[in-house]
Amino acid sequence: MPLALLALAIGAFGIGTTEFVIMGLLPEIAGDYGVPIPTAGLLVTGYALGVLVGAPLMTALGTRIARRTMLMLLMGLFVLGNLLSALAPSFPLMLAGRILASLAHGAFFGIGSVVAADLVAPNRKAGAIATMFTGLTVANIVGVPLGTFVGQAVGWRTTFGAVAALGVVGLLGIAKLVPDLPRPEGARLRQELAAFRNTQVVLAMAMTVLGFGGVFAAITYVAPMMTQVAGYSDGAVTWLLVLFGVGMFLGNLLGGRFADRHLMPLLYTTLGGLAVVLALFTVTAHSKPLAAITVLMVGALGFATVPPLQKRVLDQAHGAPTLASAVNIGAFNLGNALAAWLGGLVITAGYGYTAPNWVGSLLAVAALGLAVWSAVLDRTVAPNGPVNKAS
């Protein structure tokens, strides 16, 4: 494994921690600022929307900058955002810090995916992408639970201060280990934008929005769901997030292993399974052991879609993958924002803390439908040569 992949994974670890730790700390943050939990959920929605905007914006601004330099600048922005979150005296400033940090997220993973894929042989690209995303999944096994524990025991501000420190470590790792790869000759913003004319690129991004949105419909409100429905203590939420992180780690390994050879069948299996598991979560959430198993499965099935969807976009972007890759990371977070908002709506409407699971299931079903449509187009449309059969 190239050491550069380790550096990218370190950066991903810091970003993953700040993205997901908020779920375990929503009750504490809401109580500190005196806002209801659905309002505190805007910290998830705002971050996700920031990723959506920041992914194309930061990538476009970096079209004339060497990729390693751009990755370092993005990590610096990430550190500043988390410092603001840690020190924010009011909820609006806390939200501003979250959004500032999120602006780096999409471009980091988008550019990082391209760098990772360029470092290995063509038949190992999905595996290299999965290696980078391992940092994100390990964050959910170590960083997020530890951050949740620290936030509940000492204060959530300490958690975000520690995340800022993680960002500094990630920046130094990139400076030391990632090779100074310039952008390919002839790569321009207009060429990158042309990739979005490909229907398959757009379909892959829509699958990303709906499929990963299904995960966040449930996980955004996992803390109140597990404490008020399943009957877990506040402290147990930390260990449930560990289970979610383990599921993400296993799902990422599964996606990285099979996406290079069986991309579309993998998507059918994971999206269909996710829809079923989320629907069942409305029932299993009432049982402690079944709820724990379901949290694990949601993480595994949801994150098994990440390497194949990211590779699908890279493959279909036809020589100009950087912006498309970054926008697809934004699409993951558009799904997060959409799901967090819809989940808050059904909770506010009085349907209870398990209602977002139904929302997630419906989103996953819609993503599965788009996957089938994409495969049909794969077999019938050949814009650049022979028919490209779905693998």
From TrEMBL:
A single Gene Ontology CC annotation of this entry is: plasma membrane
Q: Report if keyword Cell membrane is assigned.
A: yes
* Transmembrane parts of this sequence: 38-58, 70-93, 99-121, 133-154, 160-179, 200-224, 236-254, 266-284, 290-309, 330-352, 358-377
Q: What is this protein called?
A: MFS transporter
GO MF term list: transmembrane transporter activity
Specify the protein's topology with respect to the membrane: Multi-pass membrane protein
Which Pfam families does the entry link to? MFS_1
The source's domain of life comes to: Bacteria
Q: Which UniProt keywords apply?
A: Cell membrane, Membrane, Transmembrane, Transmembrane helix
Organism name: Streptomyces tateyamensis
- Cite the Major facilitator superfamily (MFS) profile domain residue spans from the record: 4-381
> Where found?
Cell membrane
